[in-house]
Amino acid sequence: MDSSTLSKIKEIAGEKNYTDALEDKICYSYDGTPLLHKLPEAVVFPETTEQISALLKLANKENFAVVPRGSGTGLSGGSVPVENSIVIVLTRWNRILEIDTHNLTVLAEPGVITERLQLEVEKHGLFYPPDPGSQKICTIGGNVAENAGGLRGLKYGVTKNYVLGLEVVLPNGEIIFTGGKNFKDVSGYNLRDIFIGSEGTLGIFTKVLLKLIPKPTRAITILAYFDKLIDSAKAVADMVSFHITPCMIEFLDKTTMNCVEDYTKIGLPRNAESMLLIEVDGRGSDVDYEYEKVVEALKKNNATAIKSATTTSEANTLKTARRAAFSALARIKPTTILEDATVPRSELPVMIEKVNEAASKFDVTFGDFGHAGDGNLHPTCLTDERDHDQINRAHAAFDFIFNEAIKLGGTITGEHGTGLAKKHFLEQVAGAAGVDVMRKFKAVLDEKNVLNPGKIFDVVPRCEGYLFQKREDVPVFNPDHY
To answer: How many domains does the chain have?
Structure first.
């Protein structure tokens, strides 16, 4: 990118909102995905929707790429810069604009932290259920872009189930608002849902209108341990067959449990093969009925210990193990690759065994945890990116896991997105015709391919500068590249 173009970018954003200093560009050269990094040409912090619009119009004119970014917690490379690109950072867009207690909605800017929004609406007796594991730092805009899930997805669904409207700056710089507070609206195509989960490739969100629900008045949290991993999977299947819908059913295997205990010292058993964290919530006697059915399923499947909590403090203590899983695993090896293979719930026991098979077959270490209630597992490989052989075996293990998930009727990602990390699998899931339809959507809305190109699928070969481009040539973070 030449200096003239950079000067125009700085003029639009304002000098205080622009940086091309090397140390700043390095900070925004990667997200939460291991092994993927690329230096942008500049980083900008626009203050208005009009500035974002002007930057995209300039990108179309000058032929450079724009990569939108929130907190950078993504795990599929969605906000990793591309060749000849600038990064637009939206974390300063952090205002909650309206909490409408009559219509049960909240209007927020994209940089609002998810947990902060949840706490604010709860002050009004309202509830925003989606709770990604990174909720203390991830942003609402990023949640919408990735259609984020979370621990409560089994009962309450994921981000798309709560998005009512979006203000979007299109790739050509035009600004639209799609959706609204009407719960029924079938006027024309449902444009809102096209943008949800589009991973920053079809538009940049500047306002997000979300649906809220009444806050549950009661909750009981249950922790159970098992000597056999398969028993915990069967217990989950039984809960589903009992026609109850817990708020969450979370799973941790032995490796993850031991890492968590090393990290948190909360008294987890060292010898148990697996653990389930279950929560039932709602109002009145329904909570007691679901609790009894959960305990019945646990006992039927040989749970060795069952603990319950009814206060918020006790529940948070029990949830510590699950919420600390990724952080605890990340302490073991220099590189932690967290994925999210997802299968129909009935296939969960098989998929858990397939992860163990991959670990043995390719001689790699896995910790496995995830949202057992909706079939969304997070096989996490503990490895070292400095060792090319280890990384190649890790790639092979994940190839095996994703292919096995697809065979079981599953998918390559339940909540992390396709991004850069898994786009080579997309056609196996969506089919050639399906991917072609996606490309056509992209081409219509982004004729010049300026907005987050190279993500999900390749429209044109614009990613030649990536350090990770060839899987057999394993990348290592090297400052000399910068």
So the answer is: 3
